[in-house]
Amino acid sequence: MTEPVGRLYLVPNALDFGIDGASEAVPLDEVLPLGVIRIAARLEHWVAENARSTRAFLKRVDRIVPLARPVQQIEIVELPRPAKGGKSAATPDLSPLLASARGGADLGLISEAGLPAVADPGAALVQAAHAQGLEVIALPGPSSLLLALAASGLNGQSFAFVGYLPVDAAERTARLRELEALSRRAQQTQIFIETPYRNGALLEALLAHLQPATRVTVSCGLTAPGAFTRTDSVSGWRARPSALPADRPVVFAFLAG
User: Fold this and answer.
1) Going by C-beta distance under 8 Å and a sequence separation of 6 or more, which residues neighbour residue 30?
2) Is 117 exposed, middle or buried (CB count within 10 Å of its CB: 0-12, 13-18, 19+)?
3) CA trace torsion 162, 164, 166, 171 (10° rounding)
4) Where in the chain does DSSP place strands (E)?
5) What is the pLDDT of residues 70-103, one digit of tens each?
6) How many angstroms separate the CA atoms of 49 and 161, rounded?
7) What is the pTM of this model?
8) Domains defined for the chain, CATH in brackets
């Protein structure tokens, strides 16, 4: 007789991680479906990008649907940290993190914000789960990348997420010109993110090095109080500049004219 195995649930998080006061101002059931919250409430085993933020998430869940166990009794294991400084490292064996699912218990995977495994290190655990024949279930919830794209008015039929741009000014300029040429040739929207304290510097770089007709979108603090999205040509941004906060996540995008 085959022993029962658990499932790996990809549980979306709210997008307000790191935004002061936002987690208190926005009830979780305003950004996540109730069905997702109910599943999160019953899970007793988690793999997380950050255990502390996961406990905070579960406390928000508990205000709406009581947890199956007290937060202190729920197992939360963190994903291995990526190597610092861009150094390559051997891919870690993630099999031990799936032990509870192999033993028959459902397991949750959660990111610090948004959908796990999208622009997130959890993708490696999902790959390991498939390799072991475990059922993977993605639950619906907010993705800052797709929300920004939807609100941008840029091409939603062809787009690419390119992660972070280089910090070095010369390398960043070269990368922007490469991406703008690709965007113009393929009419493809280019989407990227930045560490919040460099939001302003990145916007300045975009306006300095992209062509005047290229349309640039900034989506700031999505789903949190004070969120906004603005799309304008580079020339429009230059004529009507906007300051960006240094403490809120921003999704940037552009489409070459």
Assistant:
1) none
2) middle
3) 20
4) 7-11, 45-48, 75-78, 107-110, 135-138, 159-164, 189-193, 215-220, 228-233, 250-255
5) 999 999 999 997 654 444 556 788 999 999 999 9
6) 20
7) 0.90
8) 7-138 (3.40.1010.10), 144-255 (3.30.950.10)
Provide the 3-class DSSP secondary structure of residue 215: strand
Pairing state between β 250-255 and 189-193 = antiparallel
Question: Is the dihedral angle over the CA atoms 117, 122, 127, 131 positive or is it negative?
Answer: negative
Q: Are 242 and 230 in contact (CB under 8 A)?
A: yes
Cβ 114 vs Cβ 141: under 8 Å: yes
| 99 token code pair | 């032990």
Residue-wise pLDDT tens digits, 148-205: 999 999 999 999 999 999 999 999 999 999 999 999 999 999 999 999 999 999 999 9
Mean pLDDT of the chain: 93
CA nearest to 50, candidates 13, 84, 83, 21: 13
